[in-house]
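User: structure tokens for this one?
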Amino acid sequence: MKFVEILILPIAMIGIIAALLWFVQPTYGEIKNLAQKIETKENTLEKKQKLVFDIEKLVNQYEDIEGRVNKVFYALPNKAEIPNVLVQLEALASENGMIFESSNFSKIQQSAQNKTTSENNAASSLETADQQNIIEQTRSVSIDINLTGSYENFKNYLRSLENNIRIMDITSINFSSSSGSSEEEEVSDNFSYSIRLKVYYQ
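Assistant:
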């Protein structure tokens, strides 16, 4: 009897272990498959996140390039855009305490100096074809403006012109005392200024 009991106990243990393996093994397989699916989805998500990052990077680069291109077009537009230039000149005068009296403009053909510069640049090995092309296509407009204001304000106005995004050169400056009575002239530090500008465009 004891022998039978001793024999039954190991058999029962083996049966229990076999039953556990029978039920656990399929569950383990499912868990393994699920883990593989999760890993696959994580890899896919990581690739998508990287793709989104790359797209955002390209968008930022495009916006940066677009901003630079816009600055170039603002500095050297395809047309003279005289009304915009006059608005800028008058606005800068107002910002610096100057009175914008009047203006006059006339188109200038490409000067001999620019043509000579283009020829010299074409002969230089340091100049690229694109740069030569830009120089050759550059045109300009001559603008005469008359202003009234103090000497300090006038200096500030010149600095504003220098820092303005539109490319322009000051070719001449003339000034004289503002008209008025002798008493006004004694206490006034205002002068009348005439400036000739060369404004460039493509």
